[in-house]
Amino acid sequence: MNEKELTVSQQQQVTPKPMLKSVLCNYLPVSNVELATKWYEETFGLTVRNRPSTSTDGAILILGNGQWLFLLESLDKRTANFITNQWDGEGYEMFSLTFEVENIVELHKRLRENGVDVEPLVDYDSCGLQFKFKDPDGNKFNVWQDPTSA
């Protein structure tokens, strides 16, 4: 194989880098930003990013990895959920986000004790422990713990 053929062969083996790197922010509809912010802060220990006192742009919560979660008031009282037949049966109410946690058993217990709408903790073997819950506005989420971190 000559040098030119080697270069072409190497170029064919290179997988193009995806143009989308990561999810920077997520936006959640809520009915009342102040109440929702307080709930997320107290329930999950999230940090609220300081905003100008004149800001009417919702709230920003900071997750443990630094990612931002925006809470914005929805004018038509929607949730981030949607109905699908492609996940867990026909007409399944799908969650929009899966949160990764370090102590899923403790969080599940805490949410139940605080009266949160929470589904049972399920062990998906190699996929790890998971459960679903809804915030006070009805936004449904999945919670997951890496099985290698348990």
Care to describe what's here?
This protein has 150 residues and is of the alpha+beta class. It has 2 domains: 23-76, Signal recognition particle alu RNA binding heterodimer, srp9/1 (2-Layer Sandwich), CATH 3.30.720.120; 79-150, 2,3-Dihydroxybiphenyl 1,2-Dioxygenase, domain 1, CATH 3.10.180.10. 22% of the residues lie in helices and 29% in strands. The chain is built from 3 helices and 11 strands; from the N terminus they run H-E-H-E-E-E-E-E-E-H-E-E-E-E. The strands form 3 sheets. Strands 7, 8, 9, 10 and 11 form a 5-stranded mixed β-sheet that branches. Strands 1-4-3-2 form a 4-stranded mixed β-sheet, covered by helices on one side. A two-stranded antiparallel ribbon has the order 5-6. Strand 3 (59-62) and strand 4 form a beta hairpin. The protein is globular. The N and C termini lie far apart (50 Å). 13% of the residues are buried.
